[in-house]
């Protein structure tokens, strides 16, 4: 398998550090860190995430959205492990002389997101710098059924999404496009962490991960950790959020590109054993949740999808590394996706869907 640039950096940074024997997950195995509290059957879920690159790139400009996302990027990690939310610590680096109206909207976004997620503000830290930076650490607990991790799926398991996909990529494309004009087209983007759904999934799912980095990068990571592949048996167009489908058509892009990331929609991708599929769908229906069944776990490594009405294999490693390779240049990124798509089409035309180097 090709090396993933981000994974190699994480492993390099973490090398040599001691890990507590109370920790359940290994490196990259879980969206949140999972710690058994000594002398207890309670698992503490902890996660920390920052909204820095998104602010600097102009992806998040409105103060309310910045505050909202500071909470949601962390709450979504709790959802992916099935944790019950407990509280959050904030780290706010503000610019000197920040406008009162901007600050009020920023805090309102934080406050509303905390209320939506059931996260109490536990405390934090305030600093000042020339650039606005936001970060947080969220805590949750898991009791009863074991927490969810990214490991555990097996060939034959069914693959689901907690909701429509592609909205995160569509939003980023509109916000960061070099051709973007002030007052131009935009879409509503205010994702919510799937906390209730994650807690239900502890009864049924064998693996779970959120799509904060995009759907295809998420599938690639799950494949690597579990030594499996995925076969998507529904056309990509049927998986997309309607706004994502509109953006793809307007930009002349293939539908699968709305799943490429690296900015996601904070849905959950998860697997359920075939024998539990009916019971899971019945429980979801009873809670008024309509997850989307999108495919199956396969024995052979690689991602097979349905695009243009034909099955083909996609080089997920190339997709996942691309944004870093072009140093975040959106125009170069789109051009790279078009090259990857041309390769996918050639493989499909010459002897069917060959194995991609993912």
The span between the termini is 6 Å
Proportion of beta-strand residues: 15-25%
Number of strands: 12
Structure classification = alpha+beta
- Order of strands, main sheet, comes to 7-9-6-10-8-11-12
Low-confidence stretches: 353-358
How many H/I helical runs?
11
Estimate the global geometry from the Cα principal axes: globular
The biggest sheet amounts to:
7 strands, mixed
Calculate the mean pLDDT score and round it.
94
Radius of gyration: 20 Å
Helix content, binned percent = 25-40%
Q: Output the helix-strand order.
A: HEEHHEHEEEHHEHEHEHEEEHH
Set down the secondary structure blueprint:
Layout (H helix, E strand, L loop, with lengths): L4 H10 L18 E4 L6 E9 L1 H5 L5 H18 L3 E11 L5 H18 L2 E9 L4 E10 L15 E4 L5 H10 L18 H7 L5 E4 L4 H12 L2 E7 L6 H10 L16 E5 L4 H10 L5 E7 L3 E6 L2 E5 L1 H10 L4 H20 L9
Parallel strand pairs: 3-4, 8-11
Antiparallel strand pairs: 1-2, 2-5, 3-5, 6-9, 6-10, 7-9, 8-10, 11-12
Helix pairs in contact: 3-4, 3-6, 5-8, 7-10, 10-11
Kindly describe this structure.
This protein is an alpha+beta fold and about 350 residues long. It has helices at about 5-15, 55, 65-80, 100-115, 165-175, 195-200, 215-225, 240-250, 275-285, 315-325, 330-350; strands spanning about 35, 45-50, 85-95, 120-130, 135-140, 160, 205-210, 230-235, 270, 290-300, 300-305, 310-315. The protein is built from eleven helices and twelve strands. The longest helix is centred in the last third of the chain and has 20 residues, at about 330-350. The protein is globular. The chain starts with a helix and ends in a 9-residue tail after the last helix.
């Amino acid at each position: 398998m090709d090396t993933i640039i981000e994974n190699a950096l994480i492993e390099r940074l973490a090398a040599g550090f001691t890990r507590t024997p109370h920790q359940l997950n290994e490196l990259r195995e879980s969206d949140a860190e999972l710690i058994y509290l000594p002398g207890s059957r309670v698992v503490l879920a902890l996660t920390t995430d920052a909204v820095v690159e998104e602010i600097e790139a102009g992806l998040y400009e409105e103060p309310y959205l910045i505050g909202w996302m500071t909470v949601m990027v962390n709450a979504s990690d709790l959802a992916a492990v099935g944790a019950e939310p407990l509280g959050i610590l904030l780290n706010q680096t503000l610019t000197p002389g920040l406008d009162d109206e901007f600050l009020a909207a920023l805090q309102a976004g934080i406050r509303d997101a905390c209320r939506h997620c059931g996260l109490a503000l536990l405390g934090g830290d305030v600093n000042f710098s020339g650039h606005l930076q936001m970060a947080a650490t969220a805590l949750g607990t898991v009791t009863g059924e074991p927490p969810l991790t990214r490991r555990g799926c097996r060939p034959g398991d069914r693959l689901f999404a907690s909701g429509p996909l592609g909205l995160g990529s569509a939003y980023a494309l509109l916000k960061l496009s070099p051709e973007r004009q002030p007052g131009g087209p935009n879409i509503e983007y205010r994702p919510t962490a799937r906390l209730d759904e994650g807690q239900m999934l502890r009864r049924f799912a064998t693996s779970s991960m959120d799509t904060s980095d995009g759907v295809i990068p998420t599938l690639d990571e799950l494949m690597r950790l579990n030594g499996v592949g995925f076969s998507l048996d529904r056309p990509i167009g049927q998986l997309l959020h309607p706004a994502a489908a509109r953006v793809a058509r307007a930009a002349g892009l293939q539908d699968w590109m709305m799943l490429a990331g690296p900015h996601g929609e904070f849905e959950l991708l998860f697997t359920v054993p075939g024998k539990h599929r009916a019971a899971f769908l019945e429980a979801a229906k009873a809670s008024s949740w309509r997850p989307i069944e999108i495919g199956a776990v396969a024995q052979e490594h690689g991602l097979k999808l349905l695009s243009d009405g034909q099955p083909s294999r996609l080089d997920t490693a190339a997709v996942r590394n691309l944004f870093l390779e072009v140093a975040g240049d959106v125009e170069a990124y789109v051009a790279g996706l078009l090259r990857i798509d041309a390769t996918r089409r050639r493989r499909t035309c010459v002897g069917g869907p060959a194995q991609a180097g993912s």
